[in-house]
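Thanks for the sequence, V.! I ran DUF2973 domain-containing protein right away. Repeating your input here for the record:
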Amino acid sequence: MLLHLLYIIAFTTLAFLAVGNLIRNLMTLGVESQRSQAPRNWAMGEPKSTSRLRMVPHPEFLDTAGNVINEPLLVMRSMSVEDAREQLDALYESSPGANASGSSDRREDV
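Predicted structure:
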């Protein structure tokens, strides 16, 4: 009985620590999300501080001149279902394990 009580106390303590850590992380995430999207030491391509250890942004965030870009990196174009189906069929047919009759059989069923 004493061992059961010890387990209950231990797991209750661990649960409180986990929930406290979760709340603390959510609060930190909320504060960090209110800051600007640029990394901490960078603002429009120039470092704020001249410390010895500067944060270097990822190369995909830099334009050809080396300045930090502040625009969406993903642009999606709309495409019809038929275009998507044709592209997927072309990928399937060009794959090494594809057979020639598999694609035509699927089209007849649709």
